[in-house]
Structures are given as C-alpha cells and as structure tokens.
Amino acid sequence: MSAHDHDHDHDHGSELSEVQLRVRALETVLTEKGYVDPTVLDRIVEHFETRVGPHVGARIVARAWTDPAFRAALLADATRAVNESGSFEPIGDHLVAVENTPEQHNVVVCTLCSCYPWDVLGLPPVWYKSAPYRSRVVMDPRSVLADFRVSLPEGTRVRVWDSTAETRYLVVPERPAGTDGWSEERLAALVTRDSMIGTGLALDPAEVSS
Ligand code: FE
After folding, report:
1. How many domains is the chain partitioned into structurally?
2. Cα of 198 to ligand 1 centre, how many Å?
3. C-alpha 13 – ligand 1 centre gap (Å)
4. Segments forming the whole domain that contains residue 63
5. Both 136 and 39 in a single domain?
6. What angle do CA 175, 48, 106 make, to 5 degrees?
7. Model pTM?
8. Residue 147 belongs to a domain with what CATH number?
9. Contact at 8 Å (CB) between 136 and 25?
10. For position 85, what pLDDT does the model report?
11. Which helix (H) or strand (E) holds 106?
12. What is the pLDDT of residues 114-161, one digit of tens each?
C-alpha cells in the first residue's frame, strides 16, 4: 500500500479523519452522559494498539513451524494449545488454526459482519469488513487473491472459512523455503497479518533484510 491509500474524505485543515472525528464526538457524548469512563476507554484502546496485534499471531505461527508438538496441538485445538503453552497471553475460546499446504490454501472471511481473531491479529484491516471482500471471496476466492497479488499453483485447492461470533480462524501459512535453522523470532518476522488471514503468503527470506 502506498502512503496515499488513506482516506481523503476529510477536511485538510484537520489532522483527524472523518471516522476519528465521529468516534471522538461519540466518545464525548457518552462521557458527558456518564455512560463510559474515558480512562477505561483509553486502556482498551491502548491494549489493542500496543499489546494485541499481528505480532502475537506471528509468534504462534513461528512456534508451530519450529515445534511439531505445538503445531499438532494448535491444529487440534488452537485456544487450548496457545493457553497451555505458557508462552503467550491467554486468548479467548473457539480459535481454530487452519494450515496451508501445497494441496490447500485457506482464506478467512466473515460473510455476515466482521468477526476476526482479535486476540491474535489485533484490529481487522478495513478491507476485511468491506462488502466486496466478504461477498467476492466466497464466490471467487482466486480473483480476490489475485487482487492481493497472490497466485497459487493450479492444483492448490482454496478453502474459504466463514467466521462467526463463536468461531475465529487463524491461517498458518506455509513456512518459506530457505529458513532452515532460523530462530522463532526471525521466522516470526516473515509472518504478515495478511498471511494469517490467507490473503497473503509468508514473506520470502529474500524480501526481508537480515
Ligand atoms: Fe462477523
């Protein structure tokens, strides 16, 4: 994405986007009426901005790539594997990990609204919530993947997983070639947010500066 892909729908005299202004107005009203405590709101926002994000999922994926027992446990019951490992912040119920293989590529959507594995990926990207993504990825996943510049071998089946309020999916991308012996931390740097939604692949080691 270029630096110019942001929303230009705001008044250029303001630093804030239209959405930010609306959120701020809503927050002011709710605070004035005593419905919400602004310090609590700040803490929630801070939590999602700094502690929860794709870096959490990336560490989980890197662990799965390097630890066969963890990988097996993750694919069997992701919430349980993560919470019992003792290495990660506790996450909520019903997380399902789906693994990409040469035979099957997995893509995650929420066709009804915008359910997303916040615990491990943080806030969803705007496109994830857009109507075109939600409808097109079900009907024609390969064309959506092409928009994301992902092309898969002909023989690879694409499976689309529809999230619900109950079940959230985390894609475990394929481990890139040329990463033998890499540490978990180094591997985690190859795991992008989109690769864990299925609209991207893990980065090639050549793409990241060492
Ligand atoms: Fe949803």
Report:
1. 2
2. 17
3. 35
4. 54-207
5. no
6. 30
7. 0.79
8. 3.90.330.10
9. no
10. 96
11. strand 104-109
12. 899 999 999 899 999 999 999 999 999 999 999 999 999 999 999 999
- Answer yes or no: do 170 and 154 share one domain: yes
Cα torsion through 162, 197, 143, 149, rounded to 10: 180
87 shares its domain with 24: no
Work out the angle at residue 109's Cα, subtended by the Cα atoms of residues 105 and 113, and round it to the nearest 5 degrees.
175
Beta bridge partners of 161: 108
Residue among 28, 157, 68, 151 at smallest CA distance from 105: 157
Q: Is 1 exposed, middle or buried (0-12, 13-18, 19+ CB in 10 A)?
A: exposed
Neighbours of 202 (CB within 10 A): 25
- Which residues are identified as catalytic? 110, 113-115
For residues 189 and 97, membership in a common domain is answered with yes
Rounded distance from Cα 183 to ligand 1 centre (Å): 35
SS3 207: helix
60 and 46 in one domain? no
Residue 11 within any structural domain of the chain: no
